[in-house]
Amino acid sequence: MAATQLHSLFSTTTRTRTRTRTRDTSTKKQSLVITNKLGAQVIGRKLRVAVIGGGPAGSSAAETLSSGGVETFLIERNSTGAKPCGGAIPLCMLDEFSIPLDLIDRKVTKMKIISPSNLTVDFGKTLKEHEYIAMLRREVLDSFLRSRAEASGVSVVNALFTHLEVPMIASGAPYVVHYNVNGSKESIEVDVVIGADGANSRVAKSIDAGDYNCAIAFQERIKLPDEKMKYYENLAEMYVGNDISPDFYGWVFPKCDHVAVGTGTVSSKQDIKLYQRGVRERVEDKVRGGRVIKVEAHPIPEHPRPRRVRGRVALVGDSAGYVTKCSGEGIYFAAKSGRMCGEAIVKASGNGTRMIDEDDLKREYLKKWDAKYINTFRFLDLLQKVFYGNNSSREALVELCGNDYVQRMTFESYLYKRIAVGNPIEDVKMLVNTVGSLIRAKILGREMEKLALEGCVIKSRLGVITAKQ
Questions:
Q1: Where are the alpha helices (DSSP H) in 115-201?
Q2: What is the pLDDT of residues 141-190, one digit of tens each?
Q3: Using CA atoms, how far apart are residues 417 and 93, in angstroms rounded to an integer?
Q4: In this structure, how many other beta carbons lie within 10 angstroms of the beta carbon of residue 113?
Q5: Per-residue pLDDT at 211
């Protein structure tokens, strides 16, 4: 195909569409030439990428792209909103993503894990003096990351993304991103699209990325009296039990002037408010006198999507399914996947000077991501199946969390996102303790069931006696 024909395919001039206006981008970064892999001229501008979604994944991708010489558009629907989220991030993220310390609401150095029988374990005994879990509000973190991306040269568009026109995969035609600005329909032609628009990703649907299970997270933000808030100054709590969730955990995480109290489930989403009442009942004494200032709910992916790259479209963050089971962690993996995807595009395009394709995205982004993190997701998936299936297993989990070696290995992996170097002898001991805890927990579980059954019988007999009287 001649260069002039390729140029017409990627033309950015206004096209006539019914009630649709195309964004004029002809004055932006026209100095360099994109070439295809055969060296033929494609168009007299830099590679153009649209990032859909302005959370940690989208903002990190956009900033990386723009800093690498790629013309970047970040489309975000709500610049002031935030998804319901515990807001915990690992220590390494602060340095890796240059997060200012003044964004941190609380530095959690103590964590309590409470079992179904109210066995409480202090989880944090092995933290070193400089170590902590940073607690932030998502609206604060997301706003900062978007602003930094914009300062790097990203064009931020406050608009509702509606749909994506996908060209034939084998063609070099542009993707057309459609969005709505205050009731006005607009669109822009781009070379590459990054979907960072959450668990219900419209970008993922546009490329038939496949379905996956989603959990529902529900939380209330509760403003506590000063004396109650003092208790949660540097403390977070996790609750497990069938009353809290059949397959997840409940939490109380401290923020600047309030606590976030919530839970989640994938198997019984219709009962989420019932489980939230279970959390509230467990923490009733600690939050009594508090005032609910916000109620939030949001879907959370349970595993990576079947397809995360298709054509010149890549998925990152929740859109790709990068939330770990067992812990429910997603913020770090969202930002990391966004940055890795951005780096992949910058590298494959020669800093925005040549076209890329699906093979580039799979090689430079997907293959590297899976090599680095996919086993972490599989391992935590296994842990959830072992320990979150019933109350007996949850008792075993809490018992194990009291072990100093378990705590050190857990925090080493979580805080620094690296495989903790263990001690072979301690690893064997941990395995033996795990088996022992599971055995004891099943015995305890049977005894608790007997007690519950006996309690029902006693209540029934008392009811009969009372009726006779």
A1: 138-151
A2: 999 999 999 999 999 999 999 999 998 766 678 999 999 999 999 999 99
A3: 9
A4: 23
A5: 84
User: Which CA distances in Å does 98 have to 21, 141, 207, 346?
Assistant: 38, 12, 33, 20
User: H helices within 200-316, ranges in order?
Assistant: 202-206, 226-231, 272-282, 284-287
Q: What is the four-CA torsion angle of 188, 192, 195, 197, rounded to 10 degrees?
A: -20
pLDDT, tens only, 100-140: 999 999 999 999 999 999 999 999 889 999 999 999 999 99
Q: Go through 128-144 and write b for each residue having 16 or more CB atoms within 10 A of its CB, e for each that does not.
A: eeeebbbbbbbbbbbbb
In this predicted structure, what is the pLDDT of residue 175? 94
425 Cβ partners below 8 Å, 6+ apart?
none
pTM recorded for the entire structure? 0.83
Distance separating alpha carbons of residues 360 and 366, to the nearest angstrom: 9
Q: If you search the block for the tokens 């072979």, which residue do you land on?
A: 424
Q: How far is CA 236 from CA 108, 149, 259, 260, 450, in A?
A: 7, 31, 9, 10, 33
- Candidates 233, 58, 72, 223; CA nearest to 141 is 58
Query: For 39, phi and psi rounded to 5 degrees?
Result: 90, 5
In 3D, which of 25, 335, 71, 60 has the Cα closest to residue 186?
Answer: 25
- How many C-beta atoms lie closer than 10 Å to residue 239's C-beta? 26
Q: What Rg, from alpha-carbon coordinates, does the chain have?
A: 25
Write the single-letter amino acid at 64. Answer: T
CA atoms 204, 206, 212, 214: torsion sign? positive
Q: Which two tokens stand for residue 167?
A: 């060209």
Q: Is there a contact between 20 and 178 (Cβ–Cβ < 8 Å)? A: yes
Q: Which residues of the chain have pLDDT under 70?
A: 1-43, 80-84, 169-171, 419-469
- Separation between Cα atoms, residue 281 and residue 264, nearest integer Å: 16
Residue whose structure tokens are 């989990």: 397
pLDDT for residue 43? 61
